[in-house]
Amino acid sequence: MSKKSVIMCVLSILVAAYMGFAMTVSSRMASKDTLSGMEIELSDPTSRFVSIADVLIETGIDPDTLSRCLRRSFDLRSLEERLKASDKLQDANVTMLSNGKIKVDVVPMVPVARVFEPGKPSYYINAGGKRISAELRYHLDVPVLVGSFDSIHPAKRLLPLLDYIATHPKAGAIVATVTQEADGNIILIPNIVGHVVNFGDTSRVNEKFALLRSFYRHVAPAKGWQTYDTVAVKWRGQVVASRRDKAVEPVPLPIEDEQTGALDINDNETVAKSTPEEESEGA
Description:
Layout: H1 3-31, E1 37-42, H2 52-59, H3 76-84, E2 89-96, E3 101-108, E4 111-116, E5 123-126, E6 131-133, E7 144-147, H4 159-167, H5 169-174, E8 175-180, E9 186-190, E10 196-200, H6 205-223, E11 228-232, E12 240-243, H7 276-281
Parallel strand pairs: 1-3, 4-7, 7-8, 10-11
Antiparallel strand pairs: 2-3, 4-5, 5-6, 8-9, 9-10, 11-12
């Protein structure tokens, strides 16, 4: 065997021995490479709805046990999905830092309305319609929705109406409470007592409020504020109002059948029309 062959053989043996040693050391180091802790950050540190302690509870992890968890076996995706499913959080992102810490970035839930359904615990909803449990430890000043809600007529369908009321002071000054009947009709309880407003659905919101303002401006003062118990603006271009029956106990939230003709009460008397100027006021 030549001298060169001997040298190559020796070098091959040394490289193999080094690789075996390195892999053994790396394996031992990896087996001891455990987590060093958890870091939680809220996108809104001033949130009154969610605290860092709340997020820690939602993780379901005892921080004292992290030092016994291996980095390579920790399921980041599972933790992230669990946090995203929480009714207190809108979004979550979980990563592993180079120092062995788990970094948890979360977006707290932002409730936009509180929902009350007969015989059920109340709850909050966010702009996407996600439900949030209502707890006694906090109270948020948000609009109230009352009524019957289901998969066909969920509470989140009222969000465009709530957004309009929140961004249009004239509409906000009219409405005290928003309710929904079992058939999906949206009923407004106005600050002006004595009647309710059948709003129908959330289409043509600007036009409907223009019709309602026209009714309050031209009809109610002339006919009397206690003349009608229900004012319906659900149909395009008309206001249909039902007279209050003094001899009969008023039905809480009556529903009118669609009538033809422009803006008439039950006795076919024309009461109001929205003008282009009035509709532009609500824009």
